[in-house]
Recover the amino acids of this structure.
């Protein structure tokens, strides 16, 4: 009723908490991840994380990710 998206409503629930994750993937998998998770239809949290990951990978492997754009946060 308040206009909050269902996926964002979990922030007020007691089980919503900060977590850390470690991910390994090759360049092909990373490119696929970015093509899916940087899309405007992806949830804002995953887009923000993907954008931060892309910024790091473009620094170390700019020739692999040259066609992906880092968005401002």
């Amino acid at each position: 009723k308040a206009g909050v998206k269902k996926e964002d409503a979990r922030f007020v629930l007691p089980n919503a908490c900060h977590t850390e994750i470690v991910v390994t993937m090759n360049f092909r998998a990373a490119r696929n991840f970015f093509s899916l998770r940087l899309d405007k239809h992806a949830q804002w949290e995953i887009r923000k994380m993907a954008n931060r990951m892309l910024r790091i990978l473009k620094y170390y492997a700019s020739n692999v990710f040259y066609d992906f754009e880092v968005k401002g946060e």
Helices lie at 6-9, 27-37, 44-60. The chain has three helices and no strands. The chain has a mean pLDDT of 87.
